[in-house]
Amino acid sequence: xxxxxxxxxxxxxxxxxxxxxxxxxxxxxxxxxxxxxxxxxxxxxxxxxxxxxxxxxxxxxxxxxxxxxxxxxxxxxxxxxxxxxxxxxxxxxxxxxxxxxxxxxxxxxxxxxxxxxxxxxxxxxxxxxxxxxxxxxxxxxxxxxxxxxxxxxxxxxxxxxxxxxxxxxxxxxxxxxxxxxxxxxxxxxxxxxxxxxxxxxxxxxxxxxxxxxxxxxxxxxxxxxxxxxxxxxxxxxxxxxxxxxxxxxxxxxxxxxxxxxxxxxxxxxxxxxxxxxxxxxxxxxxxxxxxxxxxxxxxxxxxxxxxxxxxxxxxxxxxxxxxxxxxxxxxxxxxxxxxxxxxxxxxxxxxxxxxxxxxxxxxxxxxxxxxxxxxxxxxxxxxxxxxxxxxxxxxxxxxxxxxxxxxxxxxxxxxxxxxxxxxxxxxxxxxxxxxxxxxxxxxxxxxxxxxxxxxxxxxxxxxxxxxxxxxxx
Length: 473
Known about the structure:
Blueprint: H1 5-13, H2 17-20, H3 24-33, H4 37-56, H5 65-84, E1 91-93, H6 110-121, E2 128-129, E3 134-135, H7 140-150, E4 154-158, H8 161-173, E5 177-181, E6 187-188, E7 192-193, H9 194-201, E8 204-208, H10 216-222, E9 227-233, H11 249-259, E10 263-268, H12 286-291, E11 296-300, E12 311-315, H13 317-325, H14 328-331, H15 336-348, H16 352-358, H17 360-365, H18 369-383, E13 390-399, E14 409-418, H19 424-433, E15 437-439, E16 441-443, E17 446-450, H20 459-470
Parallel strand pairs: 1-15, 5-8, 5-9, 9-10, 10-11
Antiparallel strand pairs: 2-3, 4-12, 6-7, 11-12, 13-14, 14-17, 16-17
């Protein structure tokens, strides 16, 4: 590598580790946090290596020795501060996407949060039968609730729906055939494909029908002695329209009974509260799928259910018992905090109106335009009149998100912001990089904040964040 004279000078200007860590900002941070000396040395060495690399790649402007020291002092302080701060932290969701996968999907209700905290802070009867005074099962905390809500004979929980799909296929179809409609070989976020998880499980995929039409006779023609499972995948993250046809759960269940082959439906999102009564989508209820005859159903806990991340499996006791005994059940099991949050969430569904009001996912999906507008108006009042901000209240559309309710939009209210001194993308970056971080959309050179996903307790923080960037130059 050819090194210029200027680069050599910059490399020589990099201070020794002991000199760098003696700088005022670094020493002040050490006094404030009582961080060990070894930690500071490690960070300084890493920073020094980074600077050498950037100098050699000419990605740092030419500076003298004093400038290098000053910049490195600030960089070291910033690096150590970042290391000492939580990486997973609160953000304000101004996108209007209720189940934003990148922002953590479903929010837990206050009741669920309290139960999570109690499970985390104290000893619990996670695997202890208090009444019998002996070892118990962690499944017992939610199984009865799931059965009562869905009409299933038995249930269990694993760490997400992908794990549920894998466990079911591994237990029930390893080295055997599973029949699936071509139109249901879906891919969800993170490049998770039904066909690939099936291959990983050891099951043999048998595709039937076409991408737009599958008939009952397509399944029946494919049935033979190696068939171990009839699988139906609910297309919860896309819609096929036009010249289409699919086989209902009732029809598939009847075929399964005819040939003594279990039927499994992967519902994906999974919903226990009927959103159709509010004119939102056409998602089937889990209890309807069980009633239609599916032997097993699996769905997510942190999507339309509004609970923590989990994969819920419900259905025939015979098959659930086999799944519980599979060695992978221990590998894929959920922890006490997940169970606490899930139990509290499920319990709310015993009183549907309580679930609607207290589970944030349902509350936000079902929020009226008037309720959303009131939050937006309160925000605009708090920001007040500022010559550096132009605000307008506009009609907009929200998405539910999380790979659910494809094609469904919800009427909403948003505030469009323009900053004369900042381009929209610059203002978006400043909001995103602030504390707390505010995630917004940029539309037509405007910063747009959808108030469907702005919680009431976030409005003051949001107003302060917006006013703060107008003071930055």
